[in-house]
Design brief:
The structure is a single chain. With about 625 residues, the chain is of the alpha+beta class. Helix content is about 35%, strand content about 10%. The protein has a four-stranded mixed β-sheet with strand order 8-7-11-12, with no helix packed on it. A two-stranded antiparallel sheet has the order 1-3. It is globular and about 90 Å long.
Length: about 625
């Protein structure tokens, strides 16, 4: 009887509910917003825009866990160790970065059409449903969406070459025919032209400078400045190769006669930003080295930074500082010193008299070391951007001198030579009671201490007690800043034969770096390229610059005897030579291939354009492969 009662109750309840079922299903959900509600509410639109900004595709120095551009957190900075600016000195499970026998053809892959689809849908919805949204607000929101789409296409084209240019939703009609959904690749030049024309169409709808984490007029112009410079370089230098890298349909390669038009567009966009008024080179600190460091990292009263991926303590932070701070000043024992700068990069910074930046470690006749009074003395009179970028022996950070010493050199009169003695651990003392190996190394084999003798300063948080702040940092990641725009203007002007103007732009940056009266009076493309290397180090330009100039395969040529393909280190030693007042207690330096570095960097012709995944090719027979794949 009990089971019958339950069944009767259930049956009765079902009969009772069926009469109300239609009304129930017709009710509006209380927790789901309609399109009309979303696209007429500025708060909802801003929230959606924030999501799109957060999904800006990762660069070579940032993360992209799923290769879809949807992460973009300042996490996969590990890739900074993959080129010639730095190497890996962290845990051994990442040591493969020091043994890249060749870059895979799938490196730097991006094919994030889900992101493009979502932006296209948003653009259509704001027009369709944003009936009560003020026209000016609608124009601005739409312009921001179009900027993000243009930026995304730039991130695609610099990796893949020409890609399908999709600017509206592709909707399947369930007919069984998917041909209309299978879009072919556009020409490489057409993607760059689209970026330029989009910026021209939207720049005045974005408003003037405001938040540097949202697009404004000058953010869009900065994108155009960079993208047009890339296009001009590819048009010129790809066609100067013995066999230019092209496809018959123009999906890869840009005609040489288009170069000057692109350079002119890059120069015009750069000038508009430089002459705008809202932005200026950062000059708030009288110390040129500290000033350069602050130009990238300081958030308050910084008129140089144009566009960033911002972080905010305590809700939005990253691990970069924690994992890359100098070993001797880290705040716990769980991480530090993972990516460390190379001597290659350090020697790219010139002396203030304009001479070559190679550090002087041996006498001109190579019969003896050069002896220095302290570890920092070898870096005297160097380009101040070196201090702002790199922690070198004897430099300070967070008010502390970073002690960097590999060991001691003890004079052996019997051999008439030095015995080199290095500590088996860090922070060790020699028999004379003085320092043997410093707490910040360098060390040949210990993990999480510099293997090169240098540490990153740029983007490292200067605040104390970062570990008690939840370990992570809120230093922002810079996408665009005025220093780059000056370099873009200088390079574009030079390529157009306007050397006088190019000198003005390049010298403005050098003057800020401490060169003063030693301004350049002549200019070469190699000098411009070195200026980009030192000004923009660790800001994710090096890989893309070498690719667009078509010299990556020559710089990273896979040859172990090539000074550019190998990573070099500088090890400081304290001299013990009693009775010799000119040498005892002084410091000498030894250049060497970094001990944990295993194989020369090898960039092949097939790396200039990333291979398209086979799944994409299988799904769309109109997509052709990139050359060499």
């Amino acid at each position: 009887m009990k089971r019958l009662y339950i069944l009767s109750l259930i049956t009765g309840s079902f009969l009772l509910l069926t009469g109300c079922m239609k009304d129930w299903l017709d009710r509006e959900p209380r927790t789901i917003l309609s399109d009309e509600q979303v696209w007429n509410d500025p708060k909802q639109i801003t929230a959606l825009l924030a999501n799109f900004y957060d999904r800006i595709p990762a660069e070579s120095g940032l993360t992209d866990v799923n290769n879809d551009g949807a992460d973009g957190r300042l996490f996969q900075w590990r890739n900074m160790a993959n080129y010639d600016e730095a190497m890996w000195s962290g845990q051994s499970n990442e040591d493969g970065r020091n043994n890249i026998t060749s870059y895979g053809f799938g490196s730097w892959y991006l094919w994030n059409y889900t992101y493009i689809r979502d932006i296209n849908l948003a653009l259509e919805n704001i027009e369709k449903y944003g009936i009560s949204l003020p026209d000016e607000a609608k124009k601005q929101y739409s312009a921001e969406l179009r900027f993000l789409r243009a930026l995304n296409y730039f991130n695609l084209v610099k990796r893949m070459g020409g890609v399908p240019l999709v600017t509206k939703q592709l909707i399947y009609d369930y007919s069984g025919n998917v041909a209309d959904l299978q879009q072919p690749r556009a020409k490489e030049s057409e993607i760059y032209d689209f970026i330029g024309s989009e910026v021209d169409a939207i720049k005045d709808q974005l408003g003037n400078a405001g938040s540097n984490s949202r697009a404004n007029k000058y953010t869009a112009l900065a994108l155009k400045s960079r993208a047009m410079l890339y296009a001009g370089s590819i048009a010129k230098y790809n066609n100067l190769m013995p066999v230019p890298i092209t496809t018959p349909g123009g999906e890869v390669g840009i005609p040489a006669d288009m170069a000057n038009a692109y350079y002119q567009k890059a120069l015009d966009a750069s000038k508009e930003i430089i002459n705008s008024g809202p932005y200026a080179l950062y000059r708030n600190n009288p110390d040129p080295g500290e000033n350069f460091y602050e130009a990238v990292t300081k958030k308050a009263t910084n008129r140089e930074v144009i566009f960033v991926k911002d972080f905010l303590y305590p809700t939005r932070r990253h691990w970069f500082s924690y994992d890359n701070i100098a070993r001797g000043i880290r705040e716990d024992n769980l991480g530090s010193s993972s990516v460390v700068p190379s001597l290659n990069l350090v020697e790219s910074f010139e002396y203030l008299d304009g001479s070559n930046g190679a550090l002087k470690t041996r006498t001109p006749d190579n019969t003896d070391y050069i002896y220095y009074d302290n570890p920092a003395a070898i870096f005297a009179n160097k380009d101040a951007r070196l201090y702002g970028t790199i922690i070198y022996p004897g430099a300070s950070f967070k008010g502390l001198t970073v002690s960097i010493q590999a060991g001691v050199m003890v004079w052996n009169g019997g051999r008439n030579a030095y015995d080199v003695i290095e500590g088996s651990d860090l922070g060790t003392t020699y028999s004379d009671g003085r320092l043997l190996t410093a707490s910040s190394g360098p060390h040949r084999s210990i993990m999480e201490v510099s293997n090169t003798g240098f540490y990153i300063r740029k983007f490292i948080d200067p605040n104390d007690k970062t570990s008690t702040r939840g370990i992570q940092s809120d230093i922002w990641w810079v996408w665009f800043r005025l220093g780059e725009i000056y370099l873009n203007a200088g390079e574009a002007a030079f390529e157009l034969g306007q050397t006088g103007d190019a000198l003005l732009y390049i010298n403005a940056l050098r003057e800020r770096a401490g060169f003063g009266a030693n301004s350049l009076t002549t200019l070469t493309i190699d000098r411009i390229r070195n200026e980009r290397r030192v000004e923009l180090a660790f800001e994710d330009h090096r890989l893309w610059d070498l690719k667009r100039w078509r010299i990556a395969d020559k710089v990273w040529n896979g040859n172990a005897s090539s000074p550019d393909a190998m990573i070099y280190a500088l090890y400081p030693y304290r001299v013990i030579r009693p009775g010799d007042v000119n040498r005892d207690g002084k410091y000498v330096f030894v250049k060497m291939i970094a001990p944990r570095f295993r194989a020369p960097r090898f960039f092949q012709l097939g790396n200039y354009y990333t291979a398209i995944n086979q799944a994409v090719l299988n799904n769309n027979p109109k997509i052709i492969r990139n050359p060499f794949h």
